Amino acid sequence: MPAPVNILKQRLQQGAVLHGIWLGFADPYAAENAATADFDWLLIDGEHAPNDIRSISAQLAAIGAHGPAPVVRLRDDDPAAIKQALDIGAQNLLIPMVNSADQALRAYRATRYPPEGVRGVGSSLARASRFSAIPDYLTTANDQICLILQIESAEGLANLDAILAVDGVDALFIGPSDLAADMGYLGQPNHPAVKAAVLDALARIRAAGKSAGVLSTEGDYINDCKAAGANFVGVGIDVTILASALRSLADHYRKG
Fold first, then answer.
1. Which of 78, 140, 217, 241 could form a disulfide with 2 if both were Cys (CB 3.0 to 4.6 A apart)?
2. pLDDT in tens, 240-250
């Protein structure tokens, strides 16, 4: 019995355009709620949301009973953190702040068992192998990991071609907000210079045969990114969606 087939990875390889949202509540009940919506994927944010390995594990379990594919964004490319995320059952990882081919290769090797990589062997006690219920997990897991690297600096863009040349990386994700800050436009991800850099990077990623990702909450920006080639497309953030809806409701009745 092999590791579970990674449907998200398969669909990205086929060129499908997949939409999803960020999960920032760090709560399995909220994650399960979001999983009832018909998104292709849901990203559990371990970089900016108040998540730890236990809360991420609980959210993976909550989402798993539904349709969307869970993606986990870690806080950095620490191989120990990558190992833990894989052992709790994550198959789709987004690694932020990748600036070089060396970093990309380090992240890739952290997600693979030897000889391809350096992932530690401990799946027999982990959710990833269904607690040893998947006898062939060790020999089949590598092929089912989807590695997405986040490029969000001028240095990362300057090294984009070298990063794209790293085998085993499934997708590159352009982060407009951090990129804007690094380019001198803090808080202005829609600045023309930033947007031009984002769209150019997305087109180059797809031309290189990899999937291209981006996050925006603005429809026109999203459409332009998709036209440039983005096919792993974040279209919202659960925390801000709820906050906006609540404020709108309160405002409606205050004015009423």
1. 140
2. 999 999 999 99
